[in-house]
Design brief:
The structure is a single chain. With 150 residues, this protein is an alpha+beta fold. The chain has one domain. The chain is built from 2 helices and 8 strands; from the N terminus they run ααββββββββ.
């Protein structure tokens, strides 16, 4: 019985902690692999960070000024903000795939899933002149749109 419980605990740890980190590694290694095809944006790293900052602020209805980039690993931007209501820390990861913002949560030594399921909201970005528009399409009838100045 103890061996079974130990096996369940180890398997659960692998599924919850290690597997998402491996998925992050596969994504960051995509530029070195011919098996993974992604459509990169034509933005420079500073613009990519601004899109990710604006996307997180839009999705979670937060002021842009409280969202900050913590670090960048390959093409993945890591961000966080402190929620003013209760001083809790919220952390995210983001990368751009064409006009789409791909994101996931981060925290408690885990790496959350990338929001790429067909059931997840679709977040897109567009730049026209010095205006950045983020659209968070939650459903067929619900969309959150914000525009930012560069």
């Amino acid at each position: 019985m103890r061996k079974l419980l130990l096996w369940i605990a180890v398997t659960g740890t692998i599924a919850a902690v290690i597997e998402p980190k491996l998925k992050d590694h596969r994504i960051t290694s995509a530029s070195h692999s011919t098996q993974v095809k992604t459509v990169k944006s034509n933005l420079n790293p500073e613009q990519t960070q601004k899109v990710c900052l604006a996307a997180i602020a839009t999705m979670f209805s937060k002021p842009l000024k409280i969202v900050h980039v913590t670090h960048i690993a390959y093409d993945i931007v890591y961000l966080q903000y402190i929620r003013e209501e209760d001083n809790s820390l919220w952390q995210y990861k983001c990368y751009l795939e064409g006009p789409r913002v791909i994101w996931g949560s981060v925290g408690n030594d885990t790496s959350g899933r990338w929001r790429t399921s067909k059931y997840d909201p679709i977040v897109t970005w567009a730049i026209e002149g010095n205006k950045l528009t983020i659209k968070d399409r939650i459903s067929e009838t619900s969309e959150n749109v914000r525009t930012f100045s560069f």
